[in-house]
Amino acid sequence: MDGAENGEHSRKMVFVTVGTTCFDSLVKTVDSQQVREELSRKGYTDLLIQMGRGSYMPSKVSILVIQINCIACTNFFAGSGSIFETLRLGKPLIVVVNEDLMDNHQSELAEELAERKHLFYARPQTLHQTIQDMSPESLIPYSPGNPMPVVRLMNKFLGFPTD
Questions:
Q1: Can you cite an annotated GO cellular component (predicted)?
Q2: pTM for this entry
């Protein structure tokens, strides 16, 4: 029996992770009334923010029906690996790139995956509009490629057997 049949509403969560860095501009944006209202309009009920090393503390005050929780810095949700793990799990994803980082390879990765329609891409200042415009049904499931051709090429280059 699902929650709706016994009087409970189903829960729909947004998980925000900044990895191990400081990305206060994203946390502040997600904490804004404008973004929370848009998430609520999209049917989201819970917001979990992994804050990294930032100093901004989100408001725990629930706006509309969104329940907010925060967790501290963790290495588990770091880097491009969290992008690919989310795609592998088939979850809709908005990648918000931290433009303050030097050598931001995640920006190139996010732009390419967004172009291929595997995820949505935003900057803190465009996040509200991205949430408003997004349609998770339009995303194309991500299928990891076959690594064997690259492995064979590397083995050949290094003088190892290629079979």
A1: UDP-N-acetylglucosamine transferase complex
A2: 0.76
